[in-house]
Amino acid sequence: MSHTETIVMSVGGSLIVPDQIDTNFLAELKTFITKETSSGRRFIIIAGGGKTARRYQEAAATVSIMQNEDLDWLGLHATRLNGHLLLTIFRDLAHRVMITNPDEILDVPKDAKLIVAAGYRPGASTDLRAVQIADRLKAHKVVNLSNTDYVYTDNPHTNSEAKELKNISWAEFRSIIPEDWQPGMSAPFDPVAAKEAEKRGIEVAQINGTKLAELDNYLNNQPFVGTRIHP
Question: Residue 179 has what pLDDT?
Answer without folding.
Answer: 85
